[in-house]
Amino acid sequence: MANELWDALMKFYREIIGPRFDALDARVDGMVSKSEMMSYMDDVYVKFGRLETEYHALSVAVRRLEDRMASVDEKLDRIAMRSELFELKDQLANLTERIAQLEKALN
């Protein structure tokens, strides 16, 4: 009876417990050590730092571009106003000439 129990336990170990321990050992062997994980996280934080720096640089560049566009818009508005002023002066000159012609025709 003792041999049968021993044989049954050994069979159980070989078929059930042994493979599970082997799988667990393989998983533990594949795990990264704490120092390796900390080193990896340090690398990640360095990369995040670079990305944050680039983000701030891009934000400043976008603000500069927006400011330039605003000044360009102001310049374009000034140019348009000058153009309209010249047109008004031309129209005033034409009206003045027509008034003068009408005055001549009346006299």
Account of the protein in words:
This protein has 107 residues and is mostly helical. The chain folds into 2 domains: 1-31; 32-106. 95% of the residues lie in helices and 0% in strands. The protein has helices at 2-30, 34-106. The longest helix is centred in the middle third of the chain and has 73 residues, at 34-106. The radius of gyration is 44 Å and the shape is rod-shaped. It starts with a helix and ends with a helix.
Q: Give the number of domains.
A: 2
Gyration radius, in Å = 44 Å
Residue-averaged pLDDT? 86
Structural class: mainly alpha
**Main β sheet profile:** none
The proportion of strand residues reads under 5%
Number-wise, the strands total: 0
Helix coverage percent: over 70%
Number of helices: 2
Overall 3D form: rod-shaped
Task: Give the CA-CA distance, first to last residue.
Answer: 148 Å
Low-confidence stretches: none
What is the string of helix and strand elements? HH
In short, what is this structure?
It contains 2 helices and no strands. By secondary structure, it is an all-alpha fold.
Main attributes of the structure:
single chain, 107 residues, mainly alpha, 2 domains, rod-shaped
Helices and strands in order:
Elements: H1 2-30, H2 34-106
